[in-house]
Amino acid sequence: MTESLLDIQNLRVSIPTERGMLNAVRGVDLRIGRGETLCLVGESGCGKSLTATAVMGLLPRHARITCDRFDLMGEDLTARREAKLSRLRGREVTMIFQDPTSALNPTLTVGRQLTEAVRRSEGLSRAAAEDRAVEMLERVGISNPGARLAQYPHGFSGGQRQRIMIASALMERPRLLIADEPTTALDVTIQAQILRLLKELQGELGLSLLLITHDLGVVAAMASDVAVMYAGRIAERAAARDLFQQPRHPYTQGLLAAIPVPGVTPRGAPLSAIPGRVPELIGEMPGCAFRERCARATPACDRDPLPRPGRGGGFVECVHATEAAR
Amino acid sequence: MTAVPMIRLAGVSKTYRLRRGLFGPSQELRAVHDLSLEVARGETLGLVGESGCGKSTAVSIMLGLLAPDAGRVEIAGQALDAMAERDRVRLIQPVFQNPNAALNPVKRIRSLIAQPLKLHGGSEIDREVARAMEMVGLPARLAQAYPGELSGGQRQRVALARALVLKPAVLICDEPTSALDVSVQAQIINLLLGLRRELGLTMVFVSHNLAVVEHLADRVAVMYLGEKVEEATTDALFRAPRHPYTQALLAATLPPDPGRGLPELRLGKAAADPFALRGGCLFAPRCPVVEPICRSQPQDLRRVAEGAVRCQRAG
């Protein structure tokens, strides 16, 4: 693996609820190399969005967050994380969301929203900041960007607003972009264009990307590395090619088998569904969290599974995991 | 002699008048234009296309929830607009994307599933509800539960049980698995496959997920800005799509295969604009193989070997 841009160890996020402590993220290690794309994939409630929000330092106030290590660009943020993150946020680390309408202020022009932060942080003049905004809008494929700076978000389509949010996230030339389901609400033809754009910008700016998605097709197209989350932990981490060719965790195998693939899955044949449902993460949960849904479960699964190493820094947390290829 | 189709739409159109902006001029939005579809008894038709293509309007028209401005809708050979509601709901039932919105949160599961039966004054309500719950794989103990106590997959099973309790011949599924997680989606697809086989259901399956449509449908109709641009057997459509839009749609669908990379669609930067000037082919502004004539001359739907396509250039 290349030099780490982000290195987090044993991240835990707990949220007090009426029914007890919700342990949503239960010891996650996260490493992203420079220029790499790590995809965090999993089903709803697995903790992938909370993990990303914790990296941004944007968790709600009542959430409890702990970790053993939190390095960003070689800087140790373990102590006084919140204060240090708020200094880096926007400049070195930025985030885009599934719904651009929630991230853009409807009462401010696009130009104002794009230039405000960079004028403050870099002390750019209005003209210089607008020049950069025009350049970024051009890069994300908004036509006639100079004139459109004066427009409000409602004058743009959903796909265009998503592009504007990406432009806005990249205005301060960050090193790490966190994208939480950035194309889930978009049509597939627009999705393909936005993902291409992200990949191009990443190459040009040397950006590291933490991409959160539930869509294994998006993962296959974008990821250099994949972390599969289940019930607040990373069940398996591997290079993208290894994960799709030889998934080792029964959950990863189940996920991949559950999606129909045209030309591969026989039409109309039953799909291999994973029985049951995701466990609730209230209170302590000893043992493997997947064992109740797992066909390979044995009494050995009642103990916490230890991570077993795989190729290229990958690992799998399952005592019955398929052996790694040599 | 051909059998009477279970569903027949002939030249169906629906136009909305919308105002652009608070004081803007009013404009026509053609949600569905001159749509003709036939679904044979026991057949599953997939209806695909992106947002604004008119597939949800088409669904509302098929269900009799929305009256078309023009054209005819027939279910099992009878004109839908001449049918009494109680006859209609015994024949054709919907399953929608979001079971949370479709299920009243303060009603118990038993009463939610029994609701259609009560309209019909059925006598053996308990037995019918139990039968429907068993059919969709819901444990009997959940009859007394509220929707909030159920998982997303279980709620979609409740919606299915309610749709099936009147033993309809036709099921119209509008994105029934889109709100579900991958592993749960597979459970519901398997359930639909089993029910279709056991009950001989005729189905219209609307989805933006082409892989799911490919798995379930016998035939597929592709819509773009209110028009059917291509129709073919599922095999033919996925093997050799003819319309440039269908080709782009298939190329844009990302398979779980890291070797494929990202497709180059060459669709330009513009998104589909339902208010764009008419006159030529609606797809012309984004079409990678557009010719000058495409911008001035509307394209007619023409028959081809396994179906129909609305593009003169298509092979």
Summary, kept brief:
The complex is a heterodimer of chains A (326) and B (315). Chain A is of the alpha/beta class and 326 residues long.
| Range of strand content of chain B | 15-25%
CATH architecture of the largest domain in chain B: 3-Layer(aba) Sandwich
Overall 3D form of chain A:
globular
What's the quaternary structure here?
A: heterodimer
Classified in CATH, the superfamily of the largest domain in chain B is: P-loop containing nucleotide triphosphate hydrolases
- Tally of separate helices of chain A: 11
Query: Structural class, judged by helices and strands of chain B?
Result: alpha/beta
How many structural domains can be distinguished in the coordinates of chain B?
2
**Would you tell me which CATH topology of the largest domain in chain B applies?**
Rossmann fold
- Overall mean pLDDT of chain A: 90
Q: How would you describe this structure in keywords?
A:
heterodimer; A: 326 residues; alpha/beta; eight-stranded mixed β-sheet; globular; B: 315 residues; Rossmann fold; four-stranded antiparallel β-sheet; 12 strands; 31% helix
What does this structure look like?
The complex is a heterodimer of chains A (326) and B (315). Chain A is α/β, with parallel strands linked by helices. Chain A has eleven helices and 13 strands. In chain A, the strands form two sheets. Chain A has an eight-stranded mixed sheet with strand order 7-8-9-3-10-11-13-12, with helices on both faces. In chain A, strands 1, 2, 4, 5 and 6 form a five-stranded antiparallel sheet that branches. Chain A is globular, with a radius of gyration of 21 Å. Chain A starts with a strand and ends in a 10-residue tail after the last strand. By secondary structure, chain B is α/β, with parallel strands linked by helices. Helices cover 31% and strands 23% of the residues of chain B. In chain B, a hairpin with a 6-residue loop joins strand 1 (7-19) and strand 2 (26-39). The two termini of chain B are 30 Å apart. The model of chain B has no long low-confidence stretch (mean pLDDT 90). At the A-B interface, helix 7, helix 8, helix 9, helix 10 and helix 11 of A face helix 7, helix 8 and helix 10 of B.
